[in-house]
Design goal:
The complex is a heterodimer of chains A (about 475) and B (about 350).
Chain A lengths: L1 H37 L2 H5 L11 E7 L6 H8 L7 E8 L5 H9 L1 E4 L12 E7 L5 E6 L4 H11 L4 E5 L4 E2 L3 H11 L3 E10 L4 E3 L2 E4 L6 H20 L13 E5 H7 L9 H16 L4 E12 L5 H21 L10 H16 L1 H17 L5 H29 L6 H35 L16 H10 L6
Helix pairs in contact in A: 1-7, 1-12, 1-13, 3-15, 7-13, 7-14, 8-9, 9-10, 10-11, 10-14, 12-13, 12-14, 13-14
Chain B lengths: L5 H53 L15 H14 L3 H13 L1 H8 L5 H14 L5 H7 L5 H14 L1 H14 L5 H11 L1 H13 L3 H7 L8 H14 L4 H14 L5 H5 L7 H14 L5 H7 L5 H13 L5 H10 L3 H16 L4
Classes of the chains: A alpha/beta (about 475), B mainly alpha (about 350).
Chain lengths: ~475, ~350
């Protein structure tokens, strides 16, 4: 009984610290984003010209069994508004017709490319050029996983900056020029993440996002609220402290030389995006080099989220495994002398409040419930726990929505904000607990050493991609 | 069972109460902010609907009276003027200047410059830059010293535009000092000011810069007169030959200048121990190389670094006297398969691009 009481008090303390830290980081993110956007508002409204100082960028797209979407995704990337870039699609040993689709759509020809193996990868079967779209090259290789595919892309790239993109990401046309900005403003910049928003419910035409909307699916709605609370502001908040721990694989721009020196993407892990960023931190700190890893607050990358329980479960188990793998592989960042905010605050916080949170949240809920059921805990104590645990979660979600409203207000439909508030209230007692359960599975799978990998998430095929292709094919000179 | 006092129950009650209260507070606040935002957006749309046709219609010739510019109109009018400034050129832009005068854009901008909000200041500075307003000289000079990187750079651009020749001696040292100024915007500033105004102050300022700033600053010298910039580049290369980033930046600029007098410096780095410098030197040879460089380029086809081999093959293929037949003959003669591969790749690229 005493144990139940002590445990209950411990959980109260846990939620209180979680709430305070989240609030501090959220407000840090808000002020950073507000300041950033305020100073660029006019620039975004005026016609854009290029100075010639914009660096070359290689867009890397790893494709595995993407026959339905690879063509439309590639067409969309060929239409970005940026002066110097190339697109490298890496067919990672697909079992379907991905390579055939690429060959036919883009009139690929086999090319005697001199392939420099700066990073070890599985065998590259061939490199192809597009006769019709000079910006495009395709690598055909033996399957090795996403990390391996991206490393092959890095080997082939000719640009000082490389940008990893998910094949189902929808980028705004000015996304490249926006994500490159930190590199132009601060020569110490080595990596920049783009803000990822949820595509479900939005209207896409001609490869461009034309209308932002909320998804109809409840699971996707929960994820909208979750993204705002846990991903958007949480990641941005660490930027002013130079303690960014993850850049999403959906859209991230990197200094190629630094990535190669750090060893490239690690294969055999499902959290390759976070693991790379943490390793870059370690490598650069070891070199004693001043550096900066940033995020741009602009909503410039949109991606579909799972709408079925099965797909979402698979994703969240994988994410948790990726998290624990990334942290354990880079545990040397923890509490290092001169480690700064990253080492003494961001990393331990991530361990306690991200990695172990399913243990505390779900485990705590179950234990307190059992303690109450078997009368080791009074109703009053149980109610206190319930109010703090659920109340803090709901409040954090609501504050996330509030910050979104006063900074980006992406969902400008009048009813959407009320809808999101309703979802924010339901999110904590329903969605978060299920999510914690899946994350707990991920944690146990890692402890038991269960094999896992990338599984196909059911996505809607981009019907709008057909129109993108028509538009681009109509004026091939624009793509060159 | 462990009994708790009513205090525990009270705690639970008050936590729940305040959670609900704070939640409702944020909900209400969000709804109010949303309502205000929608109202502002609607107002802006109406203002644009009013002013845009008027501006378009009066660009060719001022017809009728000028509508009054109220406080609500100020920002929209200036944004539209800036938008059209960027799009138009020549006589159309001159007419836009006249329209801006009629609308009192200068005083609107000067008024907005006093706003505490950064976006208002940036809008005002953009406008003053377009107007090249000499009367704002002192204010603009003061703002160039602001800590805020975006505002100070916008002020510097406006300042340099008003009177480039007299402004650049002030601005050039700032360019050296301010590593937080976006390099693309600095490039625009230098381009707008023109080589006549930029050359001497920039070369003097970069000449006095600390080593750690040189890699950032050297690319800006492309906006200066070659006759002043090139001697500085050679001096920098000599003084900092151990800093590979600086050497590379200098060689890249020799490429841009395309002056054959730099050939000796470029050739001296063809076998540098850093492969990036070798590659840069080869790229520079593409621009200023002579027939006698063919032998060196052929030797670089056997470089251990793929990128250097590729650039050497490219440089060979683009030499003016080089023909397709000569290139194919070279491929045949290459004993080293890596060299041959580099040549084959370049030939294939030229074929695909229709450059043969």
């Amino acid at each position: 009984m005493a144990f139940a009481l002590i445990f209950q008090k411990f959980l109260l303390l846990y939620f209180a610290i979680l709430m305070i830290t989240y609030l501090l980081i959220d407000f840090s993110a808000f002020f950073y984003a507000r300041r950033y956007m305020e100073r660029r508002r006019l620039e975004y409204e005026l016609p854009r010209f290029f100075s010639g100082f914009e660096p070359w960028v290689s867009l890397l797209v790893a494709a595995y069994d993407e026959e339905k979407t690879v063509a439309s995704a590639t067409y969309a990337l060929l239409q970005l508004f940026y002066p110097h870039y190339e697109v490298i699609v890496i067919n990672d040993g697909s079992n379907d017709r991905t390579m055939d689709v690429l060959m036919k759509e883009f009139e690929l020809v086999a090319f005697p490319e001199v392939y420099g193996e700066y990073l070890k990868t599985k065998q590259v079967r061939g490199v192809y050029y597009s006769a019709k779209y000079p910006k495009l090259r395709v690598i055909d290789k033996v399957n090795g996983g996403k990390s391996d595919a991206l490393n092959a892309g890095i080997n082939l790239s000719r640009s000082p900056l490389v940008c990893s993109i998910d094949s189902d990401s929808v980028l705004s046309r000015d996304s490249l020029i926006r994500i490159v900005q930190p590199f132009l403003e601060d020569p110490k910049t080595v990596a920049v993440g783009g803000q990822v928003r949820i595509l479900n419910g939005c209207e896409v035409r001609g490869g461009n996002l034309v209308k932002v909307g909320l998804p109809k699916n409840l699971l996707a709605l929960f994820q909208v609220v979750e993204y705002l609370r846990a991903f958007l502001f949480w990641r941005l908040g660490w930027v002013p402290l130079n303690a960014v721990m993850i850049i999403s694989g959906a859209f991230g721009l990197f200094d190629k030389a630094v990535v190669i020196k750090a060893g490239g993407y690690r294969t055999g892990t499902v959290g390759e995006d976070m693991e790379l960023v943490l390793r870059m931190h370690r490598h650069l700190r070891k070199e004693g080099r001043a550096y900066r890893i940033a995020h741009v607050p602009d909503p410039i990358c949109w991606t579909e989220v799972p709408e079925s329980l099965g797909s979402l479960q698979s994703q969240r188990i994988r994410w948790q495994r990726g998290l624990v793998e990334s942290l354990t592989l880079n545990w040397k960042l923890l509490f290092t002398f001169k480690g700064g905010v990253l080492s003494w605050l961001a990393f331990p916080f991530t361990v306690i409040f991200e990695l172990l949170s399913p243990v505390f949240e779900l485990g705590g809920f179950v234990l307190v419930l059992l303690a109450f059921w078997f009368r080791f805990l009074s109703i009053e104590a149980f109610l206190v726990y319930f109010c703090v645990a659920f109340g803090s979660g709901i409040l954090l979600s609501i504050i996330g929505l509030f910050l979104e409203e006063i900074s980006f207000h992406v969902y400008d439909d009048s009813n959407s904000i009320l809808k999101l508030f309703g979802v924010a209230i339901l999110e904590t007692p329903f969605y978060r607990l299920i999510n914690s359960f899946w994350r707990l599975i991920g944690l146990f799978q890692w402890l038991l050493g269960t094999k896992t990998g990338w599984k196909k998430i059911n996505r809607k095929s981009h019907a709008q991609g057909e129109r993108r292709r028509e538009r681009l094919s109509a004026s091939p000179s624009r793509s060159g | 069972m462990f009994h708790f006092s009513r205090a525990e129950f009270a705690v639970a009650f008050w936590i729940a109460f305040f959670t609900i209260l704070i939640g409702v507070f944020f909900l209400v606040l969000t709804v109010i902010i949303r309502a205000r935002l929608l109202s502002r957006q609607k107002q802006r749309r109406e203002l644009v609907k009013h002013w845009e046709p008027w501006l378009t219609k009066n660009l060719s010739k001022l017809e009728g009276s000028v509508p009054p510019v109220t406080e609500a109109d100020e920002r929209v009018v200036l944004q539209l003027l800036n938008y059209y400034y960027e799009l138009l050129s020549g006589s159309a832009r001159d007419r836009l200047y006249q329209l801006a005068g009629v609308l009192g854009a200068k005083s609107l901008a000067q008024k907005l410059l006093k706003s505490p909000k950064a976006d208002d200041q940036i809008l005002a500075l953009h406008t003053l830059r377009q107007l090249a307003d000499r009367t704002s000289w002192d204010v603009l000079l003061k703002l160039t010293g602001r800590e805020d990187a975006v505002v100070s750079l916008a002020a510097a651009r406006a300042f340099a535009k008003t009177d480039p020749v007299h402004a650049m001696p002030w601005v050039a040292p700032l360019i050296v000092e301010r590593s937080d100024w976006a390099c693309d915007k600095v490039a625009f500033l230098l381009k707008e000011a023109g080589p006549e105004a930029v050359s001497q102050p920039l070369v003097d300022a970069v000449g006095l810069a600390k080593k750690e700033n040189l890699t950032r600053l050297i690319p800006y010298l492309r906006f200066a007169d070659q006759s002043l910039a090139r001697p500085l580049l050679h001096r920098i290369m000599q003084n900092h030959s151990d800093d590979f980033d600086i050497v590379r930046a200098c060689i890249e600029l020799f490429s841009a200048f395309r002056n054959t007098e730099d050939l000796l410096s470029v050739r001296a780095h063809l076998h540098h121990r850093d492969w990036r410098i070798r590659a840069c030197a080869v790229v520079a040879l593409k621009e200023i190389g002579a027939e006698e460089d063919q032998k060196e380029l052929l030797s670089l086809l056997r470089d251990q670094e793929p990128w250097v081999r590729y650039q050497a093959a490219h440089a060979l293929a683009t030499l003016p006297f080089m023909s397709k037949e000569r290139l194919e003959e070279m491929i045949q003669k290459q004993a080293d398969h890596k060299s041959a591969k580099a040549m084959v790749q370049v030939m294939a690229e030229r074929r695909i691009r229709g450059e043969e």
